[in-house]
Amino acid sequence: MTPLLLLLLFAGTRGLLQRAVRASRELADPRCRADVLEYLAELQDFRLWAVRMFDSSAKFPDSITSGAIYHLGNFDACLDVDNGNGIRGRYCLARVQFQPKNPVVGAGSAWDKLKAPSSRLQVRRDVFRAAVCVPAACGAPGTASWLRALLAAAPELNRHVEVQVAVPEAACCSQEEVDTGVPAPAAAWIAVIVLLSIIALSTAYDNMSPKLDVHNGQGGRTGVGWRTSFSLTRHWGTLSEPPTRDAHLHLACLDGLRVAALLVVVVGHRGAETMTGPVLNGDAIEQHFENFGQALIMNGHLVVDTFFTISGYLLCWACLNAGRRDAGLLLACANRYVRLIPALMTVVAFEAFFLFNLYSGPLWKESIGSEVENCRSNWWTNALLVNNYVHQQSPCVDTAWYVACDFQLFIVSCALLKFVKRMKEYGFMLLLGAVVCSVAVTATLTYVRDLDPTMIPDQSILEHNYNDTYLTTYITAYCRSGPYFVGMLFAYWLFVMKTKKLEIHKVVVRLGWIICPLVAVLVIAAGILFYLPININKLLIATYAGLHRPLFGMCIAFIITACAMGNGGVVAKVLEWKAFRPFSRLTYCVYLVHYTVQMVRTASLRTPKFVSDFDVICDAIPDIVLSLCFALLLFLAAEQPAISLWNEIISAKTSDSEQSDESVHRSRKAKRENYFVIISEYFSAVLPGTSNYSEKEKLK
Prior knowledge:
Strand content: 5-15%
Oligomer: single chain
């Protein structure tokens, strides 16, 4: 028995079970055919296991007109079915598409609501997913064949409605598959054991050995040693450790800014994940595109540009303050890469080898199984940080495009800053030119390829069927460089003012605090124009596409500059609150793990959810708490040990080469000092706020 059998019943079919038996005899798979016939016979006799199999299936679809397209039945009850004679339950989530052959048209007709949508922003109601519990011997092809046979046996239904049924392999699951999972290779388990052993030994050495810290006279520690690079206690202390850098290099407002922006990102991704999962009221999703306040949320992905702006700002600010003593491009890029990769690849490895066996659910194989397959096949794109260009349609760690984008912009910006420092009189013009180029490239691509002006989160995007706009302008470095270069431009302005001991005019400060928030809100709110069914000139679309991100970045950059110049007022006091510091250091790890947490929670849902702003926020709270817990583990076990060990390697190699000549020693030591100050300051903002080991410890 299936939801389609009940559909036949509603069509007026008599002798339902008799027709089902006759249709089942046509199944090609002999084992599946035998088990299905036994199931139907036992169902007529009202045997418990057969009734439970029937009861676990979704019944006649309900609330389709309201946009409820998922009818999940009872996943766990289906998998528990066992007749004691070799017949076990298999849960399948069939995809059913229907359309009337002779629709009733006119005002008030239900078919007007159920027909295929004419707008990409509408929820499809002509397609629904219905759970069916079948004998485990019937795989996805056998289940689909059976359902089609049942439909063919209902001429009354076929005269009025055309129904198409598909059962993807990933939509079926049995208890045996849940128990077996996707086994991790022995090498993965060995790597975990080795890592945990190193962490335990390093922590024990740090706690049991004589005090290793030698203070450098500036409140920092030096002589940490490679033996304690994996010490949990040492890295735990870095979370709340006050900044040890020169005061003129530290921008304390960034701690609060990173935390606030990341919270918005997590809540936004929770909303997107909820809308793409099983929901009861799909109507609410459509209303999000029609309401002005909701449009602010739907276009809120602009908040991600906060991190681009911060990264560009800090890179330029640190390098300009370094004077002529800057680190080589190759060394800086190597340092950057080493800091990004350990945490990212740890998440990739976890998803590839351990995530699938974590839990189960109706959507588990489709969602988590796809993620695991992507990570096992395309892990190398993350390792090389080219995942925003290579295998874009099948990414591992969906949000990792930002890591690649940020690293690519770092390389380009370091080269650009070389010219800025050599031609200081043209520095402002060079950076302004970079912003203009970014705007021009994005606008031109949007105009020529007829792309959307911004990422419109329709159902295809939410379901990870990425369109040309996403692939061309949303995740590519050349189209996301605008806010990055804007941050560099404002950092250059701050450097000039600090160097010449200038102050921002009070009128400029007041106008900035009035205009910038308004511009930021208007830029986000303007997205509603592109959700409405109105014709907009292509030139206007291209203009918005090119300008909206740099304008938003300008607003963020002004806030940073105003706070750095002492014109932040109450905003600066809030953003510079010391309580933000430990959370700011965890933001990179939170960013990497939060979407996995949300994906797992959605894929394991047993019943559809009701969508509302209040419910999204309530669901985001456990997302944040769980993400912080997992991020702390990632920080202590992967990110911070890699940073500490890398610094020890660089320091040791530099020290060995310095021993040959005292003059060379002083020169290289100065250069190394400058290197650690620059890079550590910059990496405090790395996507969207990599914590930095107190690298000032290295300066003595």
